[in-house]
Amino acid sequence: MKRTRYVSAAASVVLIVGGPVTAAAAVSDDAARTVTAAPALRADVTAQDAAKAALKHYPGVIESLDKDGAVWHVDVISKDGKGHAELEVSASGAVTEQNRDTDGNAGENKALVSAKVTAEGAMKAALAAHPGQVTTVEWDDDDGTASWHVEVKGKDGKTWDAQVDPTTGKVTKSGSDSGSDSDDGDN
Fold this sequence. Notes:
Mean pLDDT: 79
Oligomer: single chain
Helix content: 10-25%
Number of strands: 10
Largest sheet: 8 strands, antiparallel
Distance between the termini: 65 Å
Order of helices and strands: HEEHEEEEHHEEEE
Radius of gyration: 23 Å
């Protein structure tokens, strides 16, 4: 009986550490049994966790952060505005560098690098206005007026689009898409 418990305990440790596998376990004197492991639990990281991991890997200022399945795509601009890194943060929080440039035009990134409100601050402001989970945050200065665009998926399944002022952190514009997967922003 004690042997069965030790084998069962050892098999449990193997399953927890090793992930989804089939292991022979709990062999008693009478019969052998096969135990199929449950799928490994995924540790999904939040947008805030992905931002923190990306900045630890490549210090600077986040330009954009977007979730694609279980992976976060994060673009980071170096503090001097010349460097740029494209990173991926997995569901477990592991960071993979996809691309790195060091010869960028610092003038193009001046507003982003000097903004009082960072991507992290914009996420916090958007979540205060619309509780849920951030799915996208990106710097937008295409029309000459800089702002943060933040998408939050609410508990009701709706996706909220918020514009956050990079100077004050105030949510200046916000609205809801009709569906949870809508990109058109027509609503």
